[in-house]
Amino acid sequence: MTITIDAGLTWRDVARVGAGETLALSPAAWGRVEQASRIVARIVETGVRAYGVNTGVGALADTVVDRASQSLLSRSIVLSHACGVGPLLAAREVRAIIAAGIANFAHGHSGVRREIVQHLAALLEHDCIPDVPSKGSAGYLVHNAHIGLVLIGEGSAHLAGRRMSGREALAAIGLEPLVLGAKEGLSLVNGTACATGLTAVALSRAERLLDWADAIAALTLEAAGCQIAAFDAAVLALRPSAGIEKVGATLRARLQGSGLVAAAFGRRTQDALSLRSVPHAHGAAHDVFDISARVVDQELASVTDNPAVSGTPEQPIVSSEAHAVAPALGQAADSLAIALAQLGAISERRMDRLVNPLVSGLPPFLASDAGSHSGFMIAQYTAAALSNENRRLAAPAAMDGGLTSGLQEDFLAHPTAAAGKLLAVIDNAEYILAIELMAAAQAHDFLAATAPRASGTDLVYQAVREHVSRYGDERPLNGDIEAVCSLIRETAPPL
Q: Which of 41, 208, 398, 413 could covalently link to 327 via disulfide, CB atoms 3.0 to 4.6 Å apart?
């Protein structure tokens, strides 16, 4: 399926392109691209000083570049900014970055030629994925440059499972390397496409993770014999929150008709906080998700190129601003990382209650033969280790320092770093929730003769049992964890 840019894109659109859909521009969007290109061409003709068009960049902004050297400037910007190191980004992430970059050009304030956008769209159409190292961007420049490399026949890309040079990759999809014009090199590396694309992918994964977290918590609450009154709609309404309301409704629906919950009625005055505060912790994460999603949509609706061109070819306006800095985007990614780290932390605490014989009322560590078998003893260690790692990752990237470009760029908001940390937190949280899901299913195996499960939680139990069987210390647990993590990562919770 092809997504068409008209007025703009949403984070869901970018995530869908990341997942494999293609991208096209409406006639109106093409018109905006071409009008901006004409404005830049006129600036070149008249020689009006404009940052990045006929001047150097960064600390070299006051260095005038003659007309004959402006194409060379564009090429050298791409080459010199391609300083990324470390493991490559996943194809899904690179595709999302390209989509966000095209969306920025489609606003009509960048000034790149139509051919630039067509080449980028062709990369998506043919699933030709530039090799983009994941590390090395203090702001927003480095990752984008590695995509730009392929457009000029440099760098490398993956196509049909094979790595090849940028020139070979372009030839394989019927394209020639581009000779960049004035400002095009700067436009290719500038803007927040990288952080926006990565955060859109993170939002897509986080949305599914949140839904699974609510479903898994219901299965655990049932196995723990929760006091359902804590989740009554009227009780939860005393703390107004869309997220709390949503999670409470999910828990009530999943646990409706549970014989195990009915049997536990009045067993305790109140449950431990890791159980009774599920609507509050999960609800807070849902609320932060909604706020972060609005920020990403705001970013996609924004022009993030510097400079921005506007006006007409006859009366061009060049605005050298700071729209590429994006503090709001970095703060949104940081906030969601904190929320999901806490989601993983409460999941690990719930899981510990299931395996801990001091509070569970179940066999120690859910082992089939405690003593000769360890059951989920060490799986809880793994969950705790991942939760601790997420606590460290939750430190805000937006507060990192950095003086770059000879004091010209003496403030950085680090949205790309924040997005990268967010994705790492999601990786860990998926594993933590997978371990809780396995433990909850094992707990239910021991409770099978006690009372029936609710139909809503039975769907979750059956889903995990379709992927892994009851554990009896007869196989390594890591394979089970990977299988259940894939279930969470790739499918929605059953309804």
A: 413
